[in-house]
Amino acid sequence: MPYAYDDQNIFAKILRGEIPNKTVMETEHSLAFHDIAPQAPQHVLVIPKGAYVTFDHFAAEATEAEITDYIRTIGEVARRMGVTPDAGDGYRMLSNAGQDGHQEVPHLHVHIFAGSFLGRMIDVPGHGDG
Ligand code: 5GP
Fold first, then answer.
1. Which end of the chain is more exposed for a tag (fewer CB within 10 A), N or C?
2. What are phi and psi of 94, to 5 degrees?
3. What strands lie across the sheet with 23-26, from one edge to the other?
């Protein structure tokens, strides 16, 4: 079934300027802003401006220009945060999709976490030590 995009989601409202955000970087096709409830000392969200629900949706339907812009913006945001391992102490990227991925906002976003040691990669109840 094709993705149905809900244009009332919170990030769509941010993109329309209906809700304020603390912008880190904006390009023609992408927007990066601070997460409202940071889960690490530094926590930035990077979203495409287009109406894409998940990463797979974006990968399948975005234009080459949107994809290039988005990927480069994510890298540049990490650089501006000062956390790329060549200049800083590193970071983690994460993009939740759907129910099992615990996606709360149905507009593609990559989280960039940084600013302290981030612990193990993932904690799944019933698997590993989770
Ligand atoms: P998800 O669980 O969908 O991967 O992450 C959604 C993220 O959006 C959460 O980390 C949450 O704190 C953040 N968020 C939700 N509403 C807002 C908002 O109005 N403004 C900002 N900046 N972040 C938000």
1. N
2. -150, 140
3. 23-26, 30-34, 42-48, 110-114, 91-94
Q: Whose CA is nearest to atom 17 of ligand 1?
A: 36
pTM for this model (two decimals): 0.97
Closest to 111 (Cα-Cα) out of 69, 81, 66, 67: 81
Q: Which of ligand 1's atoms lies nearest the C-alpha of 106?
A: 3
Q: Is 35 exposed, middle or buried (0-12, 13-18, 19+ CB in 10 A)?
A: middle
Query: In this structure, which topology does domain 10-114 adopt according to CATH?
Result: HIT family, subunit A (3.30.428)
Test site for ligand 1: of 25, 33, 35, most ligand atoms within 8 A of the Cβ: 35
How many Å lie between the centroid of ligand 1 and the Cα of residue 121?
20
pLDDT the model gives residue 1: 73
CA of 45 to the centre of ligand 1 (A): 8
Residue 130: pLDDT above 60?
Answer: no
Q: Are 33 and 45 in contact (CB under 8 A)?
A: yes
Sequence spans of domains, the chain: 10-114
